[in-house]
Design brief:
alpha+beta; two-stranded antiparallel ribbon; single chain
Length: about 190
Amino acid sequence: MKRLIFGCLFTLLTLSAVSAFCQKSGSEEFKRAFLERINRSRATGCTCGTTYMPPVAPLTWNNTLQKAAEGHAWDMSNNNYFSHTSKDGRTMEDRIVFAGYKFNGFKSFAVGENIAFGQMNIDEVMAGWLKSPGHCKNLMNAMFKEIGVAEDHSYWVQDFGYREAFTSQEQQLIKSGRMHVVQVPATSK
């Protein structure tokens, strides 16, 4: 009887631990857990490689960035590749804008992306990104204000964004023709 009770208790604890780490991508629990983990790092600051990154403001969840991340995670998973460039040649910015995260009508616009493969849960993938200087710098970038994250069969994608709206005064100047907006093409790395 003791063995049966121990076995049931062990199974229950094991299932509880597994469910704590295997939230469904896109669920409210997944979003909350990811934001909590990311914003904890952003609140305390960290060292990315040899560069100390001071504390920065928390990120907020953006469903459009999540949609872009889901699309890329699904595409990598279903087409068996691992890259920031889709097999059809689309870049991170192409995918994010196509998902609906537009830059038209905004004064400033920036996007970024982290990808990973093989990690089993949020803690594992975040630990890996924080150990990688480039990924860590994306996570700690003060310019980024929004994020969307997805996972598909151990393919992880984090899409970051920032858009700054024109002030009401700038909007009036644009409408009156006294201020003109010129779109500058993005520079390639």
